[in-house]
């Protein structure tokens, strides 16, 4: 499936690449699973680029509209589990 990733024209190339890597982690959590530590590192970097909760929600919604992947369940599971856990979101949580 091909779609565009959300980004801001105000971000540097490095920031755009890092946000894309974060969303690739979201995709991986749905498709095959991702280590919690890896996903948390991607999310922390994402939050450095997008510190605003409102902007985060907007970007998550744009990504969901384009891809069908819902970011919130992945982030929630990442925050609530311990290191060593594989983050795997069930397809029913995908729209």
UniProtKB/TrEMBL annotation:
Name recorded for this polypeptide: UPF0223 protein ABIA69_000497
The record, for SUPFAM superfamilies, names: BH2638-like
- Please name the source species: Lysinibacillus parviboronicapiens
Q: Which Gene3D superfamilies match?
A: BH2638-like
Family recorded in the similarity comment: Belongs to the UPF0223 family.
